[in-house]
Task: structure prediction
Amino acid sequence: MPFSSSGFFATSGSSEAKIASAQSAKNHTQTRWQQAEITQMQTKSIEQLEKDIWKNPSEFPTDLVEKCYRYRKISIAELTNEQIRLLISQKIGIDYLIEIALEKLERNILTECDFYEGDLLMAVSGLPIEFWKENQTEFLNFKTIVERNSELIKIELGEKKFDKLKNIIENGI
Result:
């Protein structure tokens, strides 16, 4: 989608309709049963949800590997912003963490973890195109959040990071 001087990105009516339709469908289909399922999911760890138990090595090769190992054992609801950022940046548990990350970005596009203002945004923007192709509703939600906050992103994070985000969204799915 081309950049537009009147908005963040030029969108066709069909793209806007897809976003509205996806958001409307999401809102209407989240029944009490689904809310209970989401709540139950968040009480579990990534390790439990993926049914993939990593062996406990006697020694970890790096601090990063050790952190990922430990964070996978924490219930999703108890993960900090930094733990979510790190796991997403390592492509661990992203199917379970993307909605939480998008909710955090919706509340504050510049959610700060351990490094800098907006580091959660940059971690989410680094997800592979294949992930976004399989999760189009989440991609459209991410795109909408970025578009809605484009001026703030540009002012606070600078032109370089803004252009990187714009490029990711324009060349997304």
